[in-house]
Design a protein that fits this description.
It is built from 18 helices and no strands. It is mostly helical. It starts with 5 loop residues before the first helix and ends in a 14-residue tail after the last helix.
Length: about 475
């Protein structure tokens, strides 16, 4: 069930009506039951795998807290390795198999005829990182392991963030699960406004822009010269509206139920350098990699060269985390090089943070470097990298930029500018418990999209009859 679908709205309204009126103890069981049901609507078999992961990691953490010395360390290594192996088998085994097959062909051997079929559970990267952070926090004694299995199960099966995050830290979410949820009118209206805004930008920006990209760049083999200079920013706004929209929906649903999730995006397209960008984009992943990989590798404590090496390792892993494919590997290396290049300029005094001109130029170059990097997501083989570079050697036809696309993204840009001006830490409509203001805002957004649809107006379906 997608958040922006009628089946989800129907199921959630039914769930929320019950949730609102029952006791706090019943709410916990209801949350767990709905989490299992919500995930099982995608794939029942994957639900059993998720429940196995929940049970396995709950038991590991309990044993981990009871051991000391070498035994504790051995169990911790086993716990982390088990989770990585679990992720690796289901997400990366087919990719490794294909790599091996390609290698055989490159050295003159026959192609592998048989290919295994392995189910890829949706959201596996998110809930596996969820579990790894939980185990690390327990091992480092920053939190105590859950004594109640249902508490930990709700942490892993909390449906707003189950599929696409954010990757909540156990120190933030588990105490909220253990405490009583207070639902106020302010929380309800804030939650509804966040959810509606998320649905709006997902449905009216991300989805249409996805169709635009598929129409104008279905593959890299037949492209209009220079078109990728236009397609790349469209992809950037598509991904931003899609992922930011999901995160807003998750935050809104959680707030309606009395929870507060972390903010996963903080106006990243106004960042003036790559370091700032990655402190504002997919914050739950970037901080996860910073705390559990970059700092564990030594961070910036062992000199500038070691610091950059650690960054490259982190972003190589970030590329792999996003998906199993050539494009994701190249994307991770590319982003790492962008960061290293910027930090080198800063280290040797070529960047002055007080310069307004550099900041403005930095916003442009940071946005475009990120946008062009997203093209790498679509690479199916290393040879397609050359096709991208060849297309970018041409200047685009400015008339190819649809005015309707610029008009469509305007509400999102205005909203982000407004939030930047207010310096908010979390997206906020400042509507609170004022439903009239809420209705006015979203009527305006609906009207705006009706007037400036990037694909023109379509006849109603029944006109054909």
């Amino acid at each position: 069930m997608l958040f922006n679908s009628l089946p989800f709205l129907f199921h959630f309204l039914l769930f929320y009506t019950i949730y609102y009126f029952v006791s706090d103890r019943i709410r916990k069981y209801l949350l767990l039951a709905f989490g299992i049901y919500f995930y099982s609507k995608w794939n029942v078999n994957a639900t059993f795998l998720l429940l196995f992961s929940v049970t396995f990691n709950f038991g590991l953490a309990r044993f981990l807290s009871q051991l000391s010395g070498k035994k504790r360390k051995v169990l911790f290594v086993f716990a982390i390795s088990s989770n990585l192996l679990y992720l690796g088998v289901f997400k990366y085994f087919i990719f490794v198999w294909d790599l091996y097959s390609d290698l055989r062909i490159s050295v003159g051997l026959s192609e592998l005829v048989w290919k295994p079929e392995i189910l890829l559970p949706i959201g596996i990267s998110f809930y596996t990182f969820h579990n790894i952070s939980y185990l690390i926090e327990v091992y480092d004694k920053r939190i105590f392991p859950c004594k109640n299995f249902f508490t930990f199960a709700i942490y892993d099966l909390f449906f707003p963030l189950l599929l696409l995050g954010p990757i909540e830290r156990p120190g933030n979410l588990i105490p909220q699960i253990e405490s009583k949820q207070t639902i106020t009118k302010e929380k309800i209206w804030n939650g509804v406004s966040l959810f509606m805004w998320g649905v709006f930008i997902k449905s009216t920006i991300a989805d249409p822009f996805s169709r635009y990209v598929e129409t104008h760049a279905p593959s890299f083999h037949s492209l209009e010269p220079g078109i990728l200079w236009i397609v790349a920013p469209v992809i950037a706004f598509q991904v931003y509206a899609d992922f930011f929209g999901y995160s807003l929906c998750a935050m809104g649903l959680a707030e309606m139920m009395g929870f507060q999730l972390m903010n996963n995006f903080k106006r990243p397209f106004f960042s003036s350098n790559p370091s700032e960008f990655w402190s504002k984009w997919h914050i739950s992943l970037s901080t996860w990699l910073r705390d559990y990989v970059y700092i564990k590798l030594g961070g910036n404590r062992h000199g500038f060269l070691r610091e950059n090496l650690n960054l490259m390792i982190v972003w190589f892993l970030a590329g792999i985390w996003h998906g199993a494919g050539y494009g994701f590997l190249i994307w991770g290396v590319y982003l790492g090089l962008c960061l290293v290049f910027y930090r080198s300029l800063k280290h040797y005094g070529f960047v002055k943070e007080t310069s307004h001109i550099q900041s403005i130029l930095g916003i442009f170059f940071t946005f475009y470097s990120f946008s062009l990097g997203l093209l790498l997501f679509r690479i199916q083989s290393p040879k397609e990298t050359k096709l991208i570079l060849e297309n970018l050697t041409h200047f685009p036809n400015i008339s190819s930029i649809p005015l309707m696309i610029l008009m469509t993204i305007l509400p999102l840009l205005v909203f982000d500018l407004w939030q930047e001006w207010k310096k908010t830490d979390r997206p906020d409509f400042f509507i609170s418990s004022k439903p009239f203001s809420f209705l006015v805002v979203f009527f305006f957004l609906f009207l705006w999209f009706s007037l400036f649809s990037p694909f023109g107006k379509q006849d109603f379906f029944y006109f054909q009859f």
